[in-house]
Write a structure and sequence with these properties.
With about 260 residues, the chain is mainly alpha-helical. The protein has a domain at about 90-260. It is built from eleven helices and four strands; from the N terminus they run ααααβααβαββαααα. The chain has helices spanning about 5-40, 45-50, 50-75, 90-115, 120-130, 135-140, 155-160, 190-205, 210-220, 230-245, 250-260; strands spanning about 120, 140-145, 175-180, 180-185. Strands 1-2-4-3 form a four-stranded mixed β-sheet. A hairpin with a 2-residue loop joins β3 and β4. α1 (about 5-40) packs across α10 (about 230-245) and α8 packs across α10 (about 230-245). It is globular. The N and C termini lie far apart (about 40 Å).
Length: about 260
Amino acid sequence: MFSWENPDDRVAIVQMNGELRHAQLELLSAQCATHQLRLRFSADDLARYGQPEILRKAIAAASDLNDYYASIERFIPHEAAGPDTGGSTLGKEQIFEATTRVLAYLHEHRNRFYAGGEPLSAEHKTLMRPFFSPGILDRVRVVELGGARLSNPSFYSEAKTRGFVNLPQIPHLPSLTFIDVVVFNEKITERVLFHGLVHAVQFQILGPERYTLAFVDGFLRTNSHITVPLEAHAFVLESKFAQRPAEGFSVEEQVRAWVKERRY
């Protein structure tokens, strides 16, 4: 059994948590893909017309993972149960209102920070060039707040009264992308910059309106911003970049593939 008092064990614990985070991001990607299957096809259709061998492998993998993590869950110290965080059932008018407010927030902060934003440095462009098009790298501006932090939107208080208790806490996020401006609550790092640029690509391909609607819809279904497909995909690509930074791939192609597959 590991002990934090043992220096060798501390190194192993850090490595273990890095691998756990990578596994969790891959599971988020699988969860998003499965959710899209659930939305488009009934269980009966999948059982009747899905390729049997692929279905059996998917079911076996899901079952094995469930058994494995359930065996770990027994040892996790239990905390007091929190409020229900199930998905919302807002009506169309309320979803439209929520989307409008979030979109206004994005535009307001984009306009606020763009003028003072800096282009990507030559060093950052060189690092990101294997993953992003020159158009994105030339267009995006970055802002490092230097000790200050973004605040939560003013509409959060009303959202909480409607039962949304798991809203993303903006001051605690490493960065936030406002269309084509990435604002950093903390010092710019390569990994956080990559994550912010993925969102800039999503904004470019989807457009701000469609991006915002997809984000709001995803949050209302899951009540957790990290499982919103837009965010989950950014984490998956970020993890891929962190694991193999020397192996370039096109983020734009990855985003377009998810759009084509209706995973957003």
